[in-house]
C-alpha cells in the first residue's frame, strides 16, 4: 500500500471515530454526585439484611458512590470498561471510590455501565473518572459538616435542615440527603449526601427533593 493510501485510510477511520461520538448531543440535564457515608451504609446493610456485608475497615470519610447523569434513564450500550483504562487513576480511585462490599473494579465497572455511558460523548471513560475525583476533592463533606459542628455521633441527632444548610454554605445550592431508618433507634440515619452539577460538571446547581428519604425531622450521623 502506498503512503498516500494509508493516509486516506487513516483519514476515513478518524472520520468514523468522530461520527461515532457526536459531541453536540447531550442525553442528560445535569449530574448528581452521590457520596456515601460508609458507617451509615454498612449499618444499613446490617439493619436490612441482618448480616454484616462490609468486610474491610470502614473508611472514616465520605467516599464516592458515583457520578450520575440525570434524570436517571436506561443506560445505552456504551464502550466496555477494562481495568487497563483506569491504570492512571487506579490508586486514587482505590482511596476515594472504594467498594465497601467487594472488588473495587467491579464497582467502578457497574457504575460506568449504569451511569457513565450516558455522558460518554461529553466525558469519555478516563475523563469521567477523573472528573468524579476532581469534584470529590473540592467537596470534602466531612470537613464541610465539621465546620458547622456536625460530626458523627453514636446517639446525638441533628436536624435534617441543619445538614442541608451546612452543605449549602459550601456549594450555595441545595444538596440532597439520603437516609435509612435505624429500626432499633427508630430514627432516620444518614448514609449518603448528593450534590448536583450542571451538565459540563463545572458549576453547582440545586438538587431536586433536598430532604430525600430523611424527612423533615432529625437524623443520626452514625459513628
Ligand atoms: C445492547 O446490547 C444488547 C446485547 O448485545 C442488545 O440486545 C440490545 O439491543 C442493545 N441495545 C441497544 C440500545 O443497542
Ligand atoms: C418511631 O418514631 C415515630 C416518629 O418519630 C413515632 O411516631 C413512632 O411511634 C415511633 N415508633 C416506635 C416503635 O417507637
Ligand atoms: C457550564 O455550564 C454552565 C451552565 O450551563 C455555564 O454557566 C458555564 O459557563 C459552563 N462552563 C463552561 C466552562 O463551559
From TrEMBL:
GO molecular-function terms, A-Z: ribonuclease T2 activity; RNA binding
Cleaved signal peptide residues: 1-27
SUPFAM superfamilies linked to this entry: Ribonuclease Rh-like (SSF55895)
Keyword Hydrolase: yes
Listed GO CC annotations: extracellular region
Keyword Kinase: no
UniProt keywords, alphabetically: Hydrolase, Lyase, Nuclease, Signal
Organism annotation: Vigna angularis var. angularis
Gene name as annotated: Vigan.09G002000
Pfam families: Ribonuclease_T2 (PF00445)
GO biological process, one term: RNA catabolic process
Family: Belongs to the RNase T2 family.
Name this protein carries in UniProt: Uncharacterized protein
